[in-house]
Amino acid sequence: MDAKSDTTEPSQALVQRPALPLGVRGDAKLTNEPNISPPKGNPYLPAARDNRSSGRVSRSNGLDRASSRSSSDTLPPREQPSFNSYVPRQSSNNEAYHNRNRVSGFLPDRSSDHDSAILRASSPYQSQQLHNVNGSDYEAPDRRRRTNNGFGQHNFNSSGIRAQWADWRSICLRVVGLPAATTTYDLWSLFQRHGQIVFVELFERNGVRDGGGRVRFSPPPAQQFWDDIMTVTIQGRQVTIKVDFQQDRPLAQIQAPSGRNYPPSLSLAMKALQFGILARENQIMPLQTVQNNTRGGFALTADFKFKCIEIAFACYIKDPRRDDPSIRHTSPVGKMEHTQEYKTQIPFAHLKKLVFIDIDENTWALLIPLSSPPLFYKKADHAVSHSKSRSIWNERDAWNRTVDVTYDTSWFKDDPVALRRINQFIDIGRWTTYRLLFDKSTLADWSTMKAALRDFNINVDNTTLMEFPEVPPKQSSVWDILEPQQTSALGSNDNLALLANTEDIHLPYDVRYQLEVCISQGILNEFDITAEFLQKLADLSKRRTARRDRAKDLLVYIAQPPTGTRVEDREKLDEKRIYDPMSLFEDKKAMSHYPELSIPEHCQWLRKVVVTPTTMYLSSPVPEPSNRVLRQYINHEDRFLRVQFTDEITKGRIYPAPDTDQENALFNRVHRTLQNGIRIGGRHFQYLATGNSQFRENGAYFFCPTEFLTCDNIRNWMGDVNHIRVVAKYASRLGQCFSTTKAPKASPIGQTIVPIKDIEHNGWCFTDGVGKIAPNRAVFLVQTLSNNMDKSRKSIPSAFQFRLGGSKGILVQWPDIPFNEVHLRPSQNKFTAPSKGLEVIKASRYSVATLNRQTILILSCLGVPDAVFEDMLKKQVVSYERAMEDPQVAMQLLSKFIDQNGVTTTIAQAIGDGFMEAKEPFVMAILQVWRAWSMRLLREKARIVVEQSAFVFGCVDETRTLRGYCESTESVEKNDPNSLPQIFLQVPRTGGKPGQQGEYRIITGICALGRNPSLHPGDIRVVEAVDVPSLRHLRDVVVFPAVGDRDIPSMCSGGDLDGDDYFVIWDPQLIPSEWNFPPMVHEAPKSKELKRDVRVTDLISFFVRYMKNDSLSTIAHAHLAQSDALLDGPKDPRCIELAHLHSNSVDYPKTGLEAHLKPTLRPKRFPHFMEKPPHKTYRSNKILGRLYDHVAKTKFSPKLDGAFDERILRRFALKAETLKTMRLVKRQHDKTMRQIMNQHDIETEFEVWSTFVLSRPRVGSEYKRQENMEPIVTNHRERFRAACIKVAGSTEPSILYPVVAAAYYVTWEEVQTAQAQAQMVEINETGQPLSPTPKQVPFISFPWVFERELGRIAASKEGFELEELPKPTMVSSGDYEEDDDEFERLVGAGVIEGDEEVNGNGQTQTLWAKTATTQTREAVKGELVEDEEIIDLEEDEDAGLDALARLAN
Predict the structure, then answer these.
(1) Contact (Cβ atoms closer than 8 angstroms) between residue 1389 and residue 1257
(2) Disulfide check for 962: which of 192, 611, 957, 1420 has CB 3.0–4.6 Å away?
(3) Phi/psi of residue 391, each to 5°?
């Protein structure tokens, strides 16, 4: 029966109809009501009210995940994604291709077309409801048993009382009998005229739709429209369906940190929303006001389930030419005017404080100040938000990310990206202070929301309009003054009038850049910067000397990370903001700030820019390891930019979105930046190329061309790659030139490249990436690389990873190679390049191998008992605990568990020198961070250290002695060692006393060998390690056979010998019982070649496509989850297919072919150890789940109250002048350390020093974070070692050691002063002395750039020059002498170079472009010779022909 024919209008005298929610028509008729008992009481769930009129709190709990089904319908409910994610569209191949390419000029952003984006309200119910939040609805009421007709059918009582569900937040209807081809859009279209649909699902069985589905309305329809049986039209054909009213799950309550429970969300209706900035600490300057005109949702929602605040608003965007006719554009005036709905989500963690402002008798306001922009979304047309292949549609699918709130994005589609954004209706990237206006009728409900927010640790201050006033908006003049030509082109009358009254102000580029650094980071705001301030900077810069530019130095000073937070600053809404820039010229510290220390010769100063969806952040120049291109064009280093693309600060990286176009605005922003360039400081930077390591971190190099040097010139210089027609490979070859390398001195007797053949068999290359070098040439490399090489090694490396022109790979020392020859194979030659110098990336070294989740799964499925892993983990947890108390246990453990950077060996040496027994605070903190790092990786990655193992480079047996792999062994069930392929491995004995000469041993016996990541059961091979006398000169590398049916490296996750690391395990309990599982034979898809030369636009398009389509981590997570869930684990065919997909995804940067993850391979739920949202999680009882449960979370809380070592403090009677100078060097050190921490998102100096970083990187993989931090930390140490050596004037111990002791003394002195000051503060306030917090304690890592020298001073048998501890002479850590005097002192000591020159343009060649002096380099070389005693070369400083002749012999 048609529901509409049975509707009646109840008498107004009998029914008190509540106000309907926003968007529901008030004159809608009611139908027969179900006779349902009233719901049980819930204090947070009153009846629905009109948000527009009353502003009452709307407690929405989202979409129901559960439903009652017939006994034959046992499908589990489909869980929904969180607010900050989406369910990936399970697209067909064609649609996936369509979506993957709908970015940046390939296909338009579906929400960028305003004609289609304008809301087409086909019914009065289609306006957006802002109180619909995920989560189940509310506690199910007691219901009478359902009749045959079902709920809602003929249950109208004699009083005419309407349906009980009319007061619910949502209802759900189950539909049966749908055609197989029905889509979510069909179901949505069928019912959307009856109310606001927020969720649609089509039920599936084993990936096939079963004709069932469900639809959720929120709020409920105004009347009952459905029957049990209905005849409807779907896709042009009539079908009969059954509609069933579904029961609700009980309300899901959210527990606050205080322990109180709240509904998932609370909402308040707003009157208006203002976007602006803080004009002062207690003043707001609104720059745009949006009124609630009822054209869309307008509400504030506190979402406790997903811990965020959501602000929803709609605004009518008018053509700006109506107000300013001088703005010129070819499009018709008003054509794109439209009303658009938006929303933004602010995580609780991003909220420092909210401010309640009493405006007047009718209005109150809530101020939300943010330090960076949140995520913004734009409502799209519902029709384009559905996918034919997806079985679930959620209201969130209609919300797309947006990067602009503007009239027409096409107006600036060809403009370069800059801080200044033109023609923005709301500059969402810069206007990050929001004022929300409410009617005072909402105060009672605000009290409820405020109490809940406070329980979630969000503070709310109360004030009045008089105390926190609004100031009128004003025009910013800074850009108009600095770039008058650009402003004139815009044609704004206001701007032109301003320029007419302003003198031309010119700032040099380095000053302009630093000014934009301060603006981008929110330290200065363009609305506060006046012409007077700019003129002051210009005048200051004109008085620059050959050594200093005080204008630039002043801006560097205010941009550097703070050294501490004052108590009075912690309560500020914006701690770092400087509201009065002119006050800087009265700040003596700012005005006398001086440049930084010189940097090592293999480093360069580099500027970095982070481009986000709505703005960009500039960084002050930082020293970074150099590469070939930067060295070649060092005279233009200030024209290079290192650019990284990320999401907003609150989210981190831009995640790939291969199966949806909801994120296309982000990728379009990236494409526009690459295509149009970046404008900074009046310079236009263009895309140059991308380094291979940058590629996965979404980074690239940009360059600002000169009249005689363009990006094309630089790319042509890199090498001849025009023969490459595969775009991905072309980009990869250019990327080789940006590898971080060190350039040793060239051999004066010349260098000859000798081509040698690759060893190939059956189509497999056994020598892929490996060449040869002379042993004496290896010695020469170590010496000429100075202290760039590892100081702790006791032998010359056997192999070097290198770049030479267009060649790459490793060079292995072989006795028969002449000194001046480098032997290269065709597999190493990638292209031809003019650069002929040998460049070293890193040298071979030994570290212990570790297991991880993937290797544990593979070894387990190959027969290693689970009890082995559990026993190893338990023993390690106990060992870490004991190591914190027992120096002998700690020293032994550190000596055995050698990490890849060799830091554990350094710590073990410090313990051997007695620092742990003395409870030296720095050493104890390093021990604690090592334990916390190890325990975290144990829990999160199952990183179990294997004592009997090695993690080393791979190379090849040039003698062809080792037995190779034979395919016939795959069919042999019996394990026969004589059939195994052989390897050679020689590694140092571990566990000995630190500092002793390490003995090497040759490993023999059965081993397990592999490479990370290992996903296929055949990726881990069982081999036999043997002793081959002719290979004994090779150490810290695993030598593979050069014969056999197939090379071993390619069997290990597709490895080769161009620098890949392999793990070798000879622990008998970890040797698999299944030896001969067939290796994966992966046939990579053929790359697509262009029929023309590759262009820069092709490189840009591939960069963006890769960002959007990269599925590597998604596939790896799917494999991990499926391996745990499926009975056969990694051997299951689905896991085998995922392993092949993973290999395709690894090759994506080289082939340009993405790996598409099919819906059938996606896990529906994840094991608990993967730490996914609870509704997607199951508890795993398999090995990884048990390992995860055994390790508790460990926090790093350094105890810094220990006493400094008296053996150093009393060793020397230090001169006052030395102490003064070392205090200055320490200030520079601490500033640089803070920059590193800030740049890499690291919490403590101990994590930096040790490279044991506990925090996850905001962008990029955590996998190689320790390895990537090593050159940064090494360069930092070298830099300040060189500075201290300059102060001493010699590396002679009798001269240098007092300076090292002075570094230790001034550090102790600062700590003593800070502790005394903290105790004084606490005694004044509480009467109880208290140690300073970690943030209050000065940095203490400075003297530990000389960790070996400190150990020698402490362990010295010589007597002390002081009979007792000296007393600190510093009154306050801030009481330094004037910076001008400090600068002259450091120049006089040679720590800062004083030989700058002013170029022909009158600009200073800054200190940032300078490197260490020859004197320092010679001193550092002398230091290396002292450490490398076993090299035993005469006349180490002699680089002439005589010395080379001796080496060659």
Answers:
(1) no
(2) 957
(3) -95, -5
Tokens of 375: 């995520």
Dihedral class, residue 1327 (left if φ above 0, else alpha if ψ from -120 to 50, else beta): left
Q: What is the mean pLDDT of the chain?
A: 80
Reduced to 3 DSSP states, what percent helix, strand and coil does the chain have, rounded to the nearest 5? 35, 20, 50
What's this model's pTM, rounded to 2 decimal places?
Answer: 0.83
Name the residue with higher pLDDT: 931 or 593: 931
Answer yes or no: is pLDDT of 135 > 80.
no
Q: DSSP letters along 568-609, please?
A: HHHTSSSSS--S-GGGGGG-HHHHT--PPPPB-TTEEEEEEE
Q: How many CB atoms lie within 10 A of CB 973?
A: 8
Q: Which residues pair with 1109 in a beta bridge?
A: none
d(CA 269, CA 1035): 71
- The tokens for 84 are 């900050």
DSSP 814-875: -TTS-TTEEEE-GGGB-SB-S--SEEEEEE---B--B--HHHHHHHHHTT--HHHHHHHHHH
1021 sits in which H/E element: strand 1021-1025
Q: How far apart are CA 1076 and CA 1071, in angstroms?
A: 12
Give the whole-angstrom CA distance, residue 510 versus residue 513: 5
Q: What is the rounded CA–CA span in Å between residue 100 and residue 658?
A: 5
* 1201/920 Cα distance (integer angstroms): 9
Nearest to 39 by CA among 135, 139, 136: 139
Whole-angstrom Cα distance, residue 302 to residue 500?
Answer: 49
Average pLDDT over residues 989-1009: 81
Q: What does the DSSP 8-state code read for residue 752?
A: E
Q: Which residues does residue 393 pair with via DSSP β-bridges, in sequence order? A: 200
Residue with tokens 């509480």: 1326
SS3 625: strand
CA-to-CA distance for 729 and 1125, rounded, in angstroms? 37
Q: Residue count of the chain, please give it.
A: 1449
CA–CA dist 1152, 1155 (Å, integer)? 10
Percent of the chain with pLDDT over 90: 50
Q: Is 306 helix (H, G, I), strand (E, B) or coil?
A: coil
Query: Distance of CA 1012 to CAs 692, 1134, 1183, 1401, Å?
Result: 18, 20, 19, 53
Give me the residue label for tokens 């969000």: 458
Asked whether the beta carbons of 941 and 1026 are under 8 A apart, the reply is no
Token pair of 987 as six digits: 């590694």
User: Is the pLDDT higher at 1404 or at 425?
Assistant: 425
Predicted local distance difference test score (pLDDT) of residue 1410: 37
Q: What is the pLDDT of residue 995?
A: 57
| Two tokens, residue 223 | 């009347």
* Residue in the block written with tokens 């086909």: 122
Rounded to whole angstroms, the Cα distance separating 1343 from 1222 reads: 10
Spatial CB neighbours of 428, under 8 Å, sequence gap ≥ 6: 275, 344, 373, 376, 403, 404, 405, 614
581-613 burial code (b ≥16 CB/10 A, e <16): beebeeeeebbbbbbbbbbbbbbbbbbbbbbbb
Question: Above 70 in pLDDT, residue 24?
Answer: no
pLDDT value for 994: 62
Structural contact between residues 326 and 158, judged by C-beta atoms closer than 8 angstroms: no
User: What mean pLDDT is predicted for residues 1172-1182?
Assistant: 91
| pLDDT for res 598 | 76
Burial of 1405 (0-12, 13-18, 19+ CB in 10 A): middle
Identify which of 1082, 1025, 1078 has the alpha carbon closest to the alpha carbon of residue 1055. 1082
Q: In what order do the strands lie in the sheet with 603-611?
A: 616-625, 603-611, 640-645, 699-703, 683-689, 678-680
Q: pLDDT tens digits for 624-659?
A: 889 999 999 999 999 999 999 999 988 888 999 888
CB atoms within 10 A of CB 459: 12
Strand, coil or helix: what is 1106?
Answer: helix
